[in-house]
Every structure is written in structure tokens, then in C-alpha cells.
Design a protein that fits this description.
Layout (H helix, E strand, L loop, with lengths): L2 E6 L4 E6 L2 E10 L4 E8 L8 H15 L4 E3 L2 H9 L10
Parallel strand pairs: 4-5
Antiparallel strand pairs: 1-2, 2-3, 3-4
Length: about 90
């Protein structure tokens, strides 16, 4: 089972793909405050298998690499940030 996470900047989202099939997304918009994640979803039959965590971690790693502060409005990103406070701050360039 090959998992890949792509940044679809044209549609302001990160997409997680399992064996060439999209199984979830993390939707965001950028503001002066940082990158605000508004909705994250994994295909219902694939929840509780760690795909959401993989998606959020990759999205936040990419956000920090871009020099943006991650902000979680959706519960999945908000929970991840609470459990991993090292992701919450504004990254240094």
C-alpha cells in the first residue's frame, strides 16, 4: 500500500493518495496570520488507520517549510497542534 501526499496549491489543499486513489484532504487558506486549515477529512472506511495523522503532519511540515504559521480551525489539525506544540509556533527562516 503506497501512500503519497500532494500539495494541490491551485485548490488550496493537501491530498492523501493510497494506491493511486485519493482518500482524504486538508483544505486551507492563507492569511496574514498564517496558513489556516479549515477542513480535514479521510474517507470514512479508512479512519483510525493513521492516514489523517500522516496527512496533517505532512501538511504542517510543508507549511512550516514555507515559513508560515499553521493555524487549526478544523478539529483534526487543532488536536494535532495541541498534542504537538512544537508545530504551533511561527517557524524561523
Amino acid at each position: 500500500m503506497a501512500v503519497q501526499i500532494d500539495h494541490d496549491a491551485d485548490h488550496t489543499r493537501y491530498v492523501i493518495v493510497l494506491d493511486d486513489e485519493p482518500i482524504g484532504e486538508a483544505v486551507y487558506h492563507d492569511s496574514g496570520e498564517g496558513r489556516i486549515f479549515t477542513h480535514t477529512e479521510i474517507t470514512p472506511e479508512l479512519t483510525s488507520r493513521g492516514y489523517g495523522t500522516q496527512l496533517v503532519r505532512a501538511a504542517l511540515d510543508d507549511t512550516r517549510s514555507a515559513g508560515l504559521k499553521p493555524i487549526g480551525q478544523c478539529s483534526m489539525v487543532r488536536t494535532f497542534l495541541a498534542e504537538h506544540p512544537d508545530y504551533s509556533g511561527t517557524p524561523r527562516r
